[in-house]
Design goal:
218 residues, alpha/beta, Glutaconate Coenzyme A-transferase, eleven-stranded mixed beta sheet, 4 helices
């Protein structure tokens, strides 16, 4: 059974380690803060100028002045800091972020990512993605495995304008957890009830599946 967006975020939360500074991109990545273990200390950063984001607020407790980069209302943990974009991007460009979690429209087997523009459609701008992929050494992508037409989004080569080149290390989709090694998608885990054959069919790029591929656990 394919994962929900919340389950993708829940699986990615397992990759977050104690003491990490983590940037959460727009979309599915923003959900990750809801699933991090209570026994570890993690600082979530948003490029609009906050370090110390907490989970989304409960209904009725939203503060319209407290938002993330995607303009969603958020909470701030005790000790959170607020600053301008110059300071925020100084953190990113200075490589002070341990893990970057981004959404994507396409990812290639070479680790290229396209997540900012579809030709012919209006966009507000590239946001902070260009800086994040250029500076981050540890990038995990949260995405759907296929588009609405059922076409693969894990490709041999991206067809959309690139955000970054050879920068993605790991991908968590609604079907699988994959790692990019030597220009190929390596299957690490599969969603509960989803077969390797189904993942292979949904992946246009070269897929390596060695041995018994375990199911994700939540």
């Amino acid at each position: 059974m394919a994962l929900t967006k919340e389950q993708i975020a829940q699986r990615i939360a397992k990759e977050v380690k104690d003491g990490y500074y983590v940037n959460l991109g727009i979309g599915i990545p923003t959900l990750v803060a809801n699933f991090v273990r209570d026994d570890i200390s993690v600082e979530f950063q948003s490029e609009n100028g906050i370090l110390g984001m907490g989970p989304f607020p409960y209904e009725g407790e939203e503060d319209p002045d407290l938002i993330n980069a995607g303009k969603q209302t958020i909470t701030a943990l005790p000790g959170a800091s607020f600053f301008d974009s110059a300071m925020s991007f100084g953190m990113i460009r200075g490589q002070h972020v341990d893990l970057t979690i981004l959404g994507a429209m396409e990812v290639s087997q070479n680790g290229d990512i396209a997540n900012w523009k579809i030709p012919g459609k209006m966009v507000k701008g590239m946001g902070g993605a260009m800086d994040l992929v250029a500076s981050a050494e540890n990038i995990i992508v949260a995405m759907m495995h296929t588009n609405r037409e059922g076409e693969s989004k894990l490709l041999k080569e991206c067809s959309l304008p690139l955000t970054g080149v050879k920068c993605v290390k790991k991908i968590v989709t609604n079907l699988a957890v994959l790692e990019i090694i030597d220009g190929k998608f390596h299957l690490l885990e599969r969603a509960p009830g989803v077969s390797v054959a189904e993942i292979q069919k949904a992946t246009e790029g070269d897929l390596v599946a060695k041995g018994d591929i375990i199911e994700m656990e939540f």
